[in-house]
Amino acid sequence: MSPKYGMEARQGISQRLKLVGKMKLGQFLSLPEDRFKIYLKKIEADPLFRELRDKYRLISYKKFRDVSRRPSSLELKEEFIPQNDGFDVEDLLEKNPEALAVLKKVGDIIGPRDFSNFLSGGRLEIREIEERCHLSPKERQIFKNFINKFQLQSIFDSSSSLLPVSSPRFFKIASIEKRGNELIICPLDKESYLIKGRYLINYNRFEQLIAEKKFTRVQINRISAFFKKLNLINRRTTTLYQVIYHLKEIQRRFFESENPQDLVPLTQSELARRIGVYPSSISRAIADKSILTPLGEEKPLKFFFSKKRVQNLLLEILAEEKREMKAGILSGPLSDEEIRKRLKRRYGVNMSRRTVCKYRKALRIPPSRQRG
Fold first, then answer.
1. How far apart (Å, rounded) are the C-alpha atoms in residues 85 and 157?
2. DSSP structure string for 145-201
3. At 200, phi and psi to the nearest 5?
């Protein structure tokens, strides 16, 4: 085999391996959030994971920027609440934060079991609980209001679950919350991978341990394969984090006002360019996922991307082009590069010249040399 042929063969194999890796990442990004969480728990429950982390110190975490746990005032012990897949107690507590202290007081006095039975329709009555817990008149009113809302929502959820589902199911990933002048990403799950951060793998120490013959060849192969799984997890979790982080920064005005008029026109392609991933990775990462705004409104991640808004701005610039040419302000039509600069200067929309060209073609608008 000639050297040239051998080099071409190696390049072909390398390209196929990259394609396989890309396909695996695409499939992994497309994994539904609930299945991904199950996979993640399985990985971290593996004795090998714990051994590599605790014994050999080969695995640690690197926290993501601007990510924080939710305030403890929004948390309630899970054993106090009966399990119901269609009922979001945390959401109800968010809307009734003053009820949390009263519920904790009741739960501590009557115990988790009796409290759970009561919420599930057990024998205990509100009056009996009020007397046993020595609730003040104000606490009684707060308690009654919460229980009424709890029961109404339980009835609604149980009846609506019998109806066909017409709207897609979204997995709420995090809330964007204001803390002073800052916007913070607060994962809704206390054990969220967004709180833990990405895995850091100490490859130098791994090589050192190999040199010291701490591992057999079989162990080395097994650990290397395990590291590949962790890197794949990192690609998914980091991509989703970067999407939420950049949305928080780009759409800051919207999160502060929650006025749709303050939404910055943004495409998945533009965000992919900023992050340094393929647009398909953005599309897969945001599918079926949502976040909560500072006012508690749930918004699908796709809500923050709109081709139509970008197209409307492009049409505005082209209409302006006609007026300026007619008035003699412009000597000729704007090039795609000049349109790109105007989009950035006037509307804060940062996209590549190629993306401008793509949108222009989608609107069936000819290039500048044909618009004269």
1. 9
2. HHHHHHHHHHHHHHHHTTSPP-S---EEEEEEEEETTEEEEEESSTT-HHHH-EEEE
3. -105, 125
d(CA 51, CA 151): 47
Residue 288 — left, alpha, or beta (φ > 0 → left; ψ -120 to 50 → alpha)? left
Nearest to 81 by CA among 138, 148, 150: 150
Q: Provide the whole-model pTM.
A: 0.62
Cα gap 137→149, rounded to integer Å = 19
Reading the block at residue 235, the tokens are 């690609």
CA distance 118 to 111: 11
Under 8 Å between Cβ of 116 and 83 = no
Which band of pLDDT confidence, cut at 50, 70 and 90, is reported for residue 76? very low
| Residue 294 DSSP label | T
Residue 268 CA to residue 284 CA, distance in Å, equals: 11
Region 11-39: mean pLDDT is 68
pLDDT at 370: 84
User: Tens of pLDDT along 159-181?
Assistant: 344 334 444 578 899 999 988 88
